[in-house]
Amino acid sequence: MNKVNHNIQCENCPSKDSGIFCKLERAALHEVSQNKIMNTYKRGQTIFFQGNPPFGLYCISNGKIKVYKTGNDGKETILRIVGPGDVLGHRSLFSNENYNATATVIEDTQVCFIDKNFIHQAIKKEPSIALNLIEKFSREMGTAEARSASISSKSTRERLAELLLSFTQSYGSVEKGRIRLNIKLSREEFASMVGAAQETIIRLFTDFKDEGVLEQEGKVIFIVDKEKLVEIANLDY
To answer: Taking each helix axis from N to C terminus, what angle separates 156-171 and 198-210, rounded to the nearest 10 degrees?
Structure first.
C-alpha cells in the first residue's frame, strides 16, 4: 500500500458523482478532502481483514475490490465486487462490530480512508450523506436477497449467465459489436460467486463459447450474444 497526497480534492475524483458525498456543496466537499487519506493498492493487497475492528470508512475512487468471507475450512465465498463510487466498511462501522468479511484488491485501486469520528460528525451536519449511505445499504441488501434466491432456485448454468449479465451492466463496454467485460476474475472466483465447483465453471465457460454466447481473448471476456445469455439466465429484460 502506498500513501498518496491527501490534499487531492474530492471534487476532482472520477467517481464523485456516484459517491456518498455527491450532493455536498463545495465548502463541505473541501472539508471532506482535508479529512481523508488516499491510498493506492496493488492487485492482491488486502484493505481490511475479516474479524478486525473498523476505524473508519473507505471510499473507492477507482479500481475493483472483492469482498469475501472465509469459512472454517478456509474456503472463500465472494459476497460482492465493488468499484468506483462504492464504500466499504460502512456496515461494521455503524453497527460497531468487527468486519464480517475481508476486502482484497483485484485490480489496482485508489481508496480514500475517512476516520470514523469525522464521518459521524459529517453525517450529523450533512443529511444527504446519510441518505446516500441508506440507499447503498438498501441496494446491497436487494442484491444479496436476489443472489440468495437465485442460488436456491436456479441451476449453476443459469446463475453463471445471470452473473455475466450483471457484469455487462456494471463493467461492460461495447467494442466492435461485442460487450467487453472490464473485470478480470479467475475461474475460482467465478465459482465462489455462483456457489459452484471450479470444474463446473470451466465446463460452462467452454459450453458458452461453443454456443456462441461469449468469446475470450487472454483473460478478457466478450459477450457476443446477450439475448442468448438472457435466455439461459431465465430472466425477463
So the answer is: 70
